[in-house]
Design a protein that fits this description.
With about 70 residues, the protein is an all-alpha fold. The protein is built from 5 helices and no strands. Helices cover about 60% and strands about 0% of the residues.
Length: about 70
C-alpha cells in the first residue's frame, strides 16, 4: 500500500462516478486542494477520511487501499 496507489484508487473511483474533485471534496467536508494532494500521492488520508471515502463510493476499505488478503490454513 502506497500513497500513490490509494490516491490512484480515489481518482479512479471518483472518475467512474463522474464526480469532480470539488464535488467529492464537498461531500467529504474537505478543501479541494486536500483531496488533490491525496490523489497525487502527496498526502495520505487518515483512517476517518478513508472510511468516509469508502462509504461515499460504497466500497470496502480493502478495495480502497488496494489490499488483497489471503488466508492460509
Amino acid at each position: 500500500m502506497t500513497n500513490d496507489s490509494i490516491g490512484q484508487n480515489i481518482r479512479r473511483l471518483r472518475k467512474e462516478r463522474n464526480m469532480t474533485q470539488l464535488h467529492l471534496a464537498e461531500k467529504l467536508h474537505l478543501h479541494r486542494a486536500t483531496l488533490c494532494s491525496y490523489e497525487c500521492g502527496k498526502r495520505l488520508p487518515d483512517i476517518f477520511i478513508l472510511i468516509s471515502i469508502a462509504d461515499t463510493f460504497q466500497v470496502s476499505l480493502d478495495t480502497l487501499v488496494n489490499r488483497n488478503i489471503c488466508f492460509t490454513e
